[in-house]
Structures are given as structure tokens and as C-alpha cells.
Amino acid sequence: MIKDYFILTFRSLRKRKIRSWLTMIGIFIGIASIVALIGLGEGLRETINSQFGFLGTDILAITASGGLGPPGSGVVDSLTDKELNELKRVKGIEGAAGRIMESVKIVFNKKISFSYAISLPDGDDRKILEHVMTMEAQKGRLLEDGDKNVVFLGSMFFDKDNTFGKIISPGSKVEILGKEFRVIGIMEKKGNPMLDSVVFMNEDDLRNLVDRPKDEYDIIGVRFSESADINKIKQNIEKRLRKIRDVKEGEENFAVETPASMLEQVNSIILGIQIFVYIIAGISILVGGIGIMNTMYTAVVERTKEIGIMKSIGARNSTVFTLFFIESGLLGTVGGIIGTIIGFLAATGLALIGRLILKSELITAYFPMGLIIGAILFSFILGSFFGTLPAIQASKLNPVDALRHTK
Amino acid sequence: MRKDIIIKLENVWKTYLMGEDNYVHALRGVNLEVRKGEFLAIMGPSGSGKSTMVNSVGCLDVPTKGKIYLESHDISKLHESDLAQIRGRMIGFIFQQFNLINTLTALENVMLPMIFQGMIPEERDERARELLEHVGLGDRMHHRPSELSGGQQQRVAIARAIANDPEVILADEPTGNLDSKTGNVVIDYLRKLHKEGKTIIMVTHDSNVAKAAERREYLKDGIIVKSL
Ligand SMILES: Nc1ncnc2c1ncn2[C@@H]1O[C@H](COP(=O)(O)OP(=O)(O)O)[C@@H](O)[C@H]1O
Ligand SMILES: [Mg+2]
Questions:
Q1: B102-126 pLDDT, tens per residue?
Q2: Is A94 near ligand 1, meaning CB less than 6 Å away?
Q3: C-beta separation of A104 from A205 below 8 A
Q4: Is B218 in the A-facing interface, judged by CB distances under 8 Å?
Q5: Number of domains comprising chain B
Q6: Could you report the predicted ipTM of this complex, rounded to two decimals?
Q7: Strands across the sheet with B39-43, in order?
Q8: Which of the four pLDDT bands, split at 50, 70 and 90, describes residue A50?
Q9: Whose CA is nearest to atom 14 of ligand 1?
Q10: Are A50 and A188 within 8 A, CB to CB?
């Protein structure tokens, strides 16, 4: 029976083709902008998720500076070897590795550029880091224990448009802080500008180069078992470090960054941008909904006679209500489907243009199934909601009066 | 109530309030009995209340006062949902303006009353086809009303009226918009239905058309003035 109602409804919508399309424009715009925005936001979040800075997602980062500011930039109290060993004993922690990080001057082809150099630890810790960062060499090889005076570079150096005006490839010699290093490999492109321009060195090399004492670290990465409660571990670490560093709660001179807390920061930025556009999209959807309501009221008046006819051959009030309700729901749904397609195309196109202009893989569009289904479901509900009052009015028409209606 | 009486009106009044204190009495105490299987014509000048009477018999409207019995049930005080139910199953309407739904084909128009009664698709499809064959429109099933002549449209309406096999057919000036030749075709179908045992009440101006009926009642100013 419902199927028949759909067919009936479809017929009457088709008859008023132009008006039906016009009615749906508001819904198109609203749904399209929401889908496009969420798509771009999700894309950004997805990239950040999958290319998580210098860490991995099952790793905690402890920095001595606090906040997200780049470590090594005049850090007050560096993390120490003692702290590293203490941390290894915190409950739930499977391993911890310290790293140092310095801003360095690089000279190649008589041109100068500045970048970050980051140390890689020896042994198992190296393997773990390579794994969580999904570090792979697109040219040459990864760094190994015992390598001396060699560097592993981010993909940007291998780009022919790099700042040096000449491709740096495995075998090239670069001057870092006045000392010559041989390039051993180039990392696969990550899409993250910071990672793609990084210089990896073995820990001993970097310490010698920048003259950092053996027991100092800028960042400690902590790996924990998958089953562990990340927030609990974070609390344990903070408690332990406060004790060692003799600082009160709230006055920490260190920070424990969880993937979640980093994601939160990213999310809050995305959200800030999104809220503004959501408001605009919301207004356009409201206008679209009112448009549907208006169209449906017009339809009720225009089809008064038809309603009378249907009642005279046995249609009940509920039948008439259902027919009009489905009609407005269908208007909303079709508007929503088209809006979703437009939004999808717009976001994909924008992401493409963004990537070309900014040369950053961070800009992608991602559409989870839930978003698509949600958008279409939402527009159905929207259409039905705004069609409810007109549908009630249609169903309540007195059959004789409706039949006397001319036309 | 006698067993062979299918419709009975007892002192039926219908009053419309047109603005303040301006009452229009469309019916002023109508009394009428219709036998099962009877073919009755209702005649009378325009505005005499013929349509109002037929509509109240067909459960489209409720009287202001009085009682209407349909198969010994008093329908004069029922609510719209019950009326719709009775209307859909027991009554078949035929109107002067055909009143087909323009967006639907002839076949779909005939199926509509069966859809409203929840008949299963295969059955109603078959029945609608049969009915259209029956009124000689087997080759016009997929035409829309605008592609059919007046006489053809009225035949579709007849097919639609009998779709749910109702006891009573109410035809309100069924030939009013047709020339006499096509009008006669329509009347012939009504005769045929009468022979098949349907109770028919037909409103008409035309005394020639009214001859088809077994009995004629004359309405004037909302009351039955003469019976032949
Ligand atoms: N819905 C209505 N509102 C007001 N007056 C009505 C309404 N329906 C019918 N009437 C009046 O009732 C009288 C009878 O109408 P009707 O039954 O249509 O007459 P007929 O069918 O005999 O021409 C007329 O005067 C008409 O104007
Ligand atoms: Mg009339």
C-alpha cells in the first residue's frame, strides 16, 4: 500500500516539475554546504589521524616545554635520562624512548635553508618508531644502528622545486650546521609539511652536532599496551614527573600530549570554522524547509478538488495525510540526495584545488557512510516535518466542500 | 425497517450558515425510502437540494437534523473515519464532471478505490482491467483523462464506481456534461448495472434520461414535492 502511495505522490510531483525543483533549491544548498564542510573537516581529521606528527596514535609524547610549541626552541628544563628511566617503570607503560630535536641550518648547492633535525634512538626503540610512524624509504634506505655522519631526509628535499634549486638524493652531500653529511635515504611522502621537511639523524650524530649532553631529551615517546587506559597512564606519568621535578599541580613545566588531546585541539579548530558555515547552512535549510511548507500549502489548495475526489471513493483522512506527508518527505529527500552529490563534488574539487595551490596532502575530503546516510535521512525528516501542517490541513478538508471546489 | 429497504431518510435537514444569521436550508425535512435493487431518479430545479441529498446518502456529508439509514445502520451521526470506510465499500459515486484524477491513467483511476481498501496488487490490477473492458475501454487503459472524450471519461468513472462492488451507485447528473448520444451510452451502462442488481440513485434534469429509472422523485426547495 505504501508503495502505491509513493507512486501516486511521484505522479503529482512530476506534474509540477519546475515548482518541485525550485522548492528543493533551499535544501540543495543547505545540505550541499553541510556535506562539503563535514567532508573536508573529516578529511583533515583523517589525515592528521593517519600521519600523526612525530608520534603514532598508540604513543604518548612528553615534552619539556608544554603545549604544542616545537621542542628544542629554547626549552627551559629538558627532560633527563633519569626521568626517562623512571617513566619506563610507570604502570601500563611498555617502553619509552627519548629524542632530541634542533632547528638546523642546511646548505646545499650553495643555498641555505632551515629545518628541524630529529634524533632516532638505537635498537628496538628505532624499530618501534619506524613502525608507528610508518616510516619508509622511497629512495635509498632507512637509518640503521651504527650509521655515522649520514642523514635520512623528508620527501621535500627530493622535490625538484625544493628551496635548493636542485634535487637532493641518496648519495648527495649536504652541509648541516657546518658539518658534511651524506644522504642515505629519502622518506615516502607524508603530506604533512613538517614531516616532509625533517632531517633524521642517529642520536649520537645529533648530540655531537648540537653539543647536547648525553642525558638530555626534548621529547620522550611512551608506548603503552593497547588495552591500557590512556588517560590513566597520562595521570600516572604526570604524577611521577611532578614528584621528580618538584612542581605543583597546575604549574607543570612539562606536558603530556595524548593523541586524543592533540586531536581535540585540531577538532576544536575545525569546529570553530565549521560552526560559522553551519549557521549559514542552517539558515538555508530553514528557508528550504519553509519553501517546502509553502509549496505544500499551495499544493493542498490546488488539489482541493482532487482530495475531495479521493475522499469520495473511500480515502480516509489518514490516507490523505499520508499522501501529502510522503510528498513533502520526498521533496526533502530528493533535495537532500542532490545536495549530497553537489556537496561531495564541491568538497572533492576544493580539496583538489587546495592540494595544487598549497602543495599539501593535508587537504583531502573524506565522506564516511554515516555522513551520506545521515544527510539524506535528515533531509527526509526535514521535508516531512515542514509538510506535516499542510498534510493535516489536507486531511481535514470536508469532502463535499472539497468537491465543490472549482478546478 | 422493512427488509427490502436499503436506504431510508427520516426528516432530513441540511442547513448552511452563510455569514451571520443567514441560514440556507438545502434540505427541509426529506423523507424517502429506496428498495434494494431499485433504480430511482431524483429530479428538480437547480439549487433544490438534489446533490445535498445524494451526498448525505453517500456518506460524504452529515445531515444537520434527521436520520439516514443505510442497510438499517444509522449513518447520520458517524464520524469521518467511519463514513470513509462505508463510502469506500458500499457506495459508488458518478459525478457530472467525471472527477477523475488527471495525473493518473484510466487504469490507475479505476484501481484507486481498491488501493484505498487495501486490495492486493495482482487482484486489483486484474479487476481494473476487467472493468475497463466491461465499459468498452480495453484499448484506452493507459490513457490519461485529458486524452479521453467526455463519454469515455464518464465510462472510466463508472468502472471506478463499481470497483469495490458497492451495493449503491449514486450518479449526480451523470449525463449533464455529455451530448444526448454519449449520454445514452452512459445511461445504458447504468441500466445494465441495475439489471445486475445494484441499487441506483440518479440525479437528473432531463426527463428523457429519467425515463430509464423505475421511479422518479421531485425535489423543490429542499423537500420532496411529487413522486411518480
Ligand atoms: N457547502 C455549502 N455552503 C453553502 N450553501 C450550500 C452548500 N452546499 C449547497 N448549498 C446550497 O444548498 C442549496 C442546494 O444545493 P444543491 O444540493 O447543490 O442543489 P442541486 O444539486 O439541486 O442543484 C443551494 O441553495 C446551494 O447554494
Ligand atoms: Mg447538483
A1: 999 999 999 999 999 999 999 999 9
A2: no
A3: no
A4: no
A5: 1
A6: 0.94
A7: B91-94, B168-172, B199-203, B39-43, B215-220, B223-227
A8: low
A9: B49
A10: no
